[in-house]
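Structure (tokenized):
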């Protein structure tokens, strides 16, 4: 299968925080790969903007070093010099006047102009105000903002209000890289481009859904930030919420940004409050390496590095089907997956046959993106009707050949969508606020109860209490493995 590369229009992309970690690891390598693939026009320009005093040559060297570090197999080095020719730099003072006149002179009026706020949310207002004051943006400009989109409903509203003072909602792209993953988008294709699953996609046929995002690393150098956020704010309220919405949403009337986001918003608003007994929080312990308390340098911390929740949706499609969400640090394996478990057949005609297992559709987001459907078949050979379970497996790398093995990174796709002006995979302001309106009472509840996270050993599946969350419902978590 040949992958089609559809070039975007020429653009100027200004990366505020252009010397930061996200720019080095994701944004600049992603843009380089799109340039080499022929999707980014050669007359486009990427302008780094940061506090560091640096000239164009210095920043180009910085970019080249980042590419060599984060694209180890830099095979097409012949395209590197051409890509670096698109790079520029302006030293900028986000809270003052330094550099803004120069930036205004570097951006063009006759191309798509996008501004990536890869900085702390506290600077969003300053950047928006100065872009407006210096006439650098207009009604066709686009602004990309990174999470966190607030830390509760009040701060999310304040942040939306700050952006709304200078940009229309159609200009704001709130980026969640999970929505740029190939498998996440294929979830929509599987549901809405095939008749096979949609008739079964409801509580009559689906027993439960598990969403797992497990990491083997600890909080690392993010200790001070993470201890103010925790797994609920850092992962559940955004990443896992978006995955839940894509599974549970009704078919939109068309594949249109607002139509898709309208349906996701309906799911969030239909979420039931989470009961205290349906929440398990944990912290990884020290075991040959520092534990969570040591990593965040706060021995009194009650912030969770692991959380599991049972979530219910009160609408006609999903009433009676629970969604189990879990995410954590220092777990057994690095994996992200969605597992849809279907109900047992209402009647088995195979008398005496034991060991029936559920049909499970597993959507793997990482590693080895793909889908796997487990079904029951007759075991080969004589001796009667014996049932066995087999997978119908579609690994993208295997099914699509070289195309599947070279799946674009989420940031590559999302940045190109910004240039196209396609907001389908970006969160809308009311969607962000609705998610916080659901999450805030959950967080306030355990704070009021003075709940302490349960300890768990690194390299396991999390706290023992999380097992009971499903056991009492007669279910069990899927094994965490790569």
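Design, position by position:
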């Amino acid at each position: 299968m040949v992958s089609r590369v559809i070039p975007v229009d020429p653009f100027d992309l200004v990366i505020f925080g252009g010397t930061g970690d996200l720019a080095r690891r994701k944004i600049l390598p992603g843009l380089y790969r799109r340039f080499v693939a022929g999707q980014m026009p050669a007359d486009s320009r990427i302008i780094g903007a940061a506090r560091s005093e640096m000239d164009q040559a210095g920043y180009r060297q910085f970019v080249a070093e980042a590419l060599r570090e984060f694209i180890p197999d830099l095979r097409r080095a012949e395209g590197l010099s051409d890509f670096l020719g698109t790079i520029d730099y302006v030293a900028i003072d986000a809270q003052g006047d330094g550099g803004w006149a120069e930036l205004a002179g570097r951006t063009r009026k006759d191309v798509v102009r996008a501004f990536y706020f890869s900085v702390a949310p506290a600077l969003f207002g300053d950047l928006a105000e100065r872009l407006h004051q210096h006439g650098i943006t207009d009604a066709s400009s686009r602004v990309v903002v990174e999470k966190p989109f607030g830390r509760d409903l009040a701060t999310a509203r304040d942040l939306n209000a700050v952006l709304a003072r200078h940009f229309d909602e159609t200009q704001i792209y709130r980026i969640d890289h999970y929505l740029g993953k190939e498998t996440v988008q294929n979830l929509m294709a599987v549901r809405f481009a095939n008749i096979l699953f949609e008739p079964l996609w409801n509580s009559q046929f689906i027993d439960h859904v598990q969403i797992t995002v497990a990491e083997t690393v600890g909080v690392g150098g993010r200790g001070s930030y993470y201890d103010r956020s925790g797994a609920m704010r850092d992962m559940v309220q955004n990443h896992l919420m978006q995955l839940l919405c894509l599974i549970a949403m009704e078919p939109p009337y068309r594949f249109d940004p607002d139509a898709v986001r309208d349906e996701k918003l309906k799911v969030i608003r239909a979420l039931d409050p989470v009961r205290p007994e349906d929440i398990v929080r944990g912290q990884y312990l020290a075991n040959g390496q520092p534990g969570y308390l040591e990593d965040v340098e706060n021995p009194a911390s009650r912030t969770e590095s692991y959380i599991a929740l049972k979530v219910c949706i009160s609408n006609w499609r999903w009433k009676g089907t629970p969604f189990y969400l879990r995410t954590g640090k220092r777990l057994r394996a690095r994996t992200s997956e969605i597992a849809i478990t279907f109900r047992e057949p209402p009647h088995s005609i195979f008398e005496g046959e034991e060991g029936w297992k559920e049909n499970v559709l597993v959507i793997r987001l990482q590693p080895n993106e793909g889908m796997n459907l487990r079904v029951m078949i007759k075991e080969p050979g004589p001796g009667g009707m014996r049932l066995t379970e087999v997978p119908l497996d579609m690994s993208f790398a295997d099914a699509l050949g070289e195309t599947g093995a070279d799946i674009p990174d989420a940031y590559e796709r999302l940045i190109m969508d910004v240039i196209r002006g396609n907001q389908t995979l970006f969160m809308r302001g009311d969607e962000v606020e609705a998610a916080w309106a659901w999450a805030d009472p959950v967080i306030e509840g355990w704070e009021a109860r003075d709940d302490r996270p349960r300890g768990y050993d690194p390299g396991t599946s999390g706290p023992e209490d999380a097992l009971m969350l499903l056991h009492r419902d007669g279910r069990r978590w899927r094994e965490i493995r790569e």
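Reviewer-requested clarification: The domain at 179-408+427-471 is CATH 3.30.360.10 (Dihydrodipicolinate Reductase; domain 2). The two ends are 27 Å apart (CA to CA).
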